[in-house]
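>> received
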Amino acid sequence: MKNLLAAGGLLLALSSSAQTRLEKLWETDSNQFLTPESVLVDSKTNSIYVSNIDGKPWESDGKGFISTLAANGAVQTLKWADGLNAPKGMGISKGKLYVADITEVAVIDVRTGQIKEKIAPAGAVNLNDIDVAPNGEVYVTDSGSDRVYVIKGKTASVFLESPELKRPNGIKFVGNKMYIISAGGGDFFEVNPDKTLKKLAEGMPSGDGIEPDGKNFFLSRWEGVLHYWHAADGKLEQLLDTRPDKKNCADIGFDKSKRVIYVPTFNGNTVAAYQIK
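>> returned
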């Protein structure tokens, strides 16, 4: 039973059928990041980006910034891009990093870290997570309006709006299929071609990040839980619970080639890395 306990008293639960487990690799010092909300792994450049709110999660105070992180846990540039408010989810399209920042999407040049422009979707309330479709279009969830916006060029429009979403948070494309997890309803959805929603799982209040692993998915809950959803039977396997340590499990990042998952702990002010076994 001892091999089920990771450093810091984190319980890593095993499913008898899946045998999925996590091995903690490292965790950054708590005096570096400031309310880290999201981690994005860019496999093309081997870059790891971390969004830092540094303040209240929905307050426009100009304190937010993006950091770059090395694969060994060393902070490369703490304020690689700054001048943001409360940055959360991120996505990369055509050499630009798109960042959800309350009611705007900041567009940052990945070569320089400079904000090139800000796009404000009409009616946006609490923009939360971002992903990029195979054609390069950028999609962003709005947890305050039950909407998903699409950005084409410099123009944002409503792609999907549904009360079923109940504060949509995490969004992810697998091929042309869109997946969404809700923060309010705790549901995990696949979006059908006609924009109706197919519920794949439920019972995950404070749903946050989504990362695909083949046909299966890692699903995080902000309050401090990481699940693994099995496509074969639709079951949820709990892999991690950081609530006893008063740390959150916000918008996770995933390095598919190394099979390492990165967990931003929000109020814990750290990022932790786990090897998937």
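>> Residues 1-18 have pLDDT under 50 and may be disordered.
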